[in-house]
Structure formats: structure tokens, C-alpha cells
Task: structure prediction
Amino acid sequence: MVIYLMAGGPSDLHPDLGMYKEREGCIWVGVDRGVQILLDHDIVPAAAFGDFDSVTEDELSLIQEKLDTITIYPSEKDETDLEIAFKWAVAQDPQEIWLFGSTGGRIDHFLGNIQLFLREEILPLHKKISFYMADHKNLLTVRTPGSYSLQVMDE
Result:
């Protein structure tokens, strides 16, 4: 199973979601504004997480109408919306977790999102879960010590 988490970063930095949309065995999850982004791309996420402070009231009503599983958190909390969704994704025991909409906008968000892959409780999981962060120009992953073969991707 592959889980795609869509955060609410700037749309001009999103990868072509069509490349990922048709992949078999994938689960789409929206995070806050990322839910609306997915709906705008005709992708109905299986789950949604967030305080939804980045959407309008009309957008939130549409999200609640279209989704079966939506978890709304208070704005004041100890974790970011993406952290909450990421922990949920890890608990599903997937082979891969991909983050989209998580590289641009605010540098503090970007750095925090990278650190999700490096958390002490996550590092041992790198042996069974591959973690990726992608945007329109970059594909980032973290590897723990070991030997790997790298593939060069054409632009």
C-alpha cells in the first residue's frame, strides 16, 4: 500500500498529480487545505485531517459533504496537521508514504516536514517504509546507513 499525503503548500510547486493518480493500491489523504487541492484535481481523499483554518466556510462544507472520513482538530494543538496525518499514515503500515504540498511557502514548515522523516521513532521504520517528499522539481528521500542503488531521473 502507498499513502499520498497532500498538504496545503503553494499550488505552483505541486508535482503533476496525474502521474500519481492512477497508481494502484494508493490511498490519498488530505491535510487541511490539501483536501481542497485534491478535490480540485478530482481526487476524493480516503481521509482528511486538520484544523481547516486554511479553507473557507464554503470549502469546508463541500469537504464535509464529499468525504466519509474527516477528522477536525482544534487550532491550538501540540502537533501540526501534517504531523497528525503522518502518524496516522505510519500506523497503516504502508510500503511507501509520499508528501506533496509540503516543500514551499514557509521555510519553517518545509524544515519541519523534512524532520518528520528523521524522528527517533520513525528511523527504525525506514527498513520497511520508504518515505518521499515531492514537488514539481524535486524528489527527496531519507536513507538510513546501508548500501543503495540510485537511479537518475530524466527531467
